[in-house]
Amino acid sequence: MFFDRPESGELAVLVHLNLSHGQEAEDPREFEELVLSAGGDPVAFLTGSRVTPTAKYLISTGKLEELRQLVQEHKAELAIFNHTLTPSQERNLEKELQCRVLDRTGLILDIFAQRARTFEGKLQVELAQLRHTATRLIRGWTHLERQKGGIGLRGPGETQLETDRRLLRNRITQIESRLEKVRSQREQGRRSRQRAAIPTVSLVGYTNAGKSTLFNLITGAEVYAENQLFATLDPTMRRIELADIGAVVLADTVGFISHLPHRLVEAFRATLEEASNSSLLLHVIDSAAEERLRNIEQVDLVLEEIGAADLPQLRVYNKLDLLEGASPQIDRDDSGKPIAVWLSAQTGVGLDLLAQAISELLGKGIVAGSLVLEPQQGRLRAMLYSQQAVIDEHYRDDGNLEIYIRLPKDDLLRILSACGTQYDSLLWLDPGDDGELQNPDASPT
């Protein structure tokens, strides 16, 4: 029911009002891109201004007449509003226009339904759609408005409307139960990564900022990436190796948008929790977009809603190839800490700077130096190799092994604990003293 879509686009009349009662205006260009992403075929664009929307139609009766003429003239099958309509406004407009009416929330839900590819993604979209539909049930089955008495006509004693609501509630409960299992599985995965001290880096940002293209460039994956809104819906995670850091889990998330419907935030909470539990957020920004600052503000609002506003964040200004005369660089604060990287995920320019910035932000407590291991410490050597921490090694004249390592100190402490070795008992070499053993407290970090 929820995932059957026509093969061809639908003729649609678009409606956008500039409301001046304090509500932030939607972007009409973004609205048109949303319709195109949904497979719609815009045939007319009706605009207007009002101080406050009307309770019955949102638009005035004069604009309603203009809209009716446009629908009839172009034989449009759909009227799409760049606003949130109440259930009664939607029904009143459909009655007057004699065509389907869709608001901004319904449009985004339809795009999400087309993009969902995994079982989890489809469940999340269906949940959001059911919650949206539950407020819009009408008495469509007039011949069954009341269950009648008599042989073969006795029913549960409820109207068809009540039956529909009950079935919707049951389905919503089933989906919520399944998604709760998904959330539990994700939580187990996060706990496993925390025990293994593997940091998670999540790509977040406004829709169509280039997150999936950057994800594919870094990981070599083949995540669906197109120049359209909400090209990515299902979360994807890959394990990568970074210099000085080791293993890192990189997560690609669904794109944000201005006034993201609250039902979508709730339905995708299991997915968005990956971002809210990350060690670092890569906020990918379309550097060539005119509304760049507005998009940044909208992403920050969603991050605040999911409890991720206080996490460490690195801004990634993407699409550098669209800016004339721009070059890749790292922006730093007064203390020298990376705060932004300028790159192009399409051409790969600046990718090395991004890896450098991530390593600097996550690579606190790096241990690097030459360590002397005795023959009975073979297990320690093997575990250091398993973490890819060994840079070089050679045997000394006394039969001991001199090994040069580089890894996060937390990983080293975890390995030592598994081997039953104390950190203070390690024998480090001072490279400036021709192999003389140094005090472990002076080990390079």
From TrEMBL:
Name of this chain's protein: GTPase HflX
Upper lineage: Bacteria, Pseudomonadati, Pseudomonadota, Gammaproteobacteria, Cellvibrionales
CDD domains linked to this entry: HflX
PANTHER family per the UniProt record, alphabetical: GTP-BINDING PROTEIN 6-RELATED, GTP-BINDING PROTEIN HFLX
Cofactor annotation: Mg(2+)
Domain (Hflx-type G): residue spans on this chain: 199-366
Signal peptide: none
Protein family per UniProt: Belongs to the TRAFAC class OBG-HflX-like GTPase superfamily. HflX GTPase family.
Gene that specifies this protein: hflX
PROSITE patterns noted in UniProt: G_HFLX (PS51705)
A GO term, aspect molecular function: GTP binding
Subunit structure of this chain's protein: Monomer. Associates with the 50S ribosomal subunit.
Annotated organism of origin: Cellvibrio japonicus (strain Ueda107)
Cellular compartment(s): Cytoplasm
Primary localisation category: cytoplasm
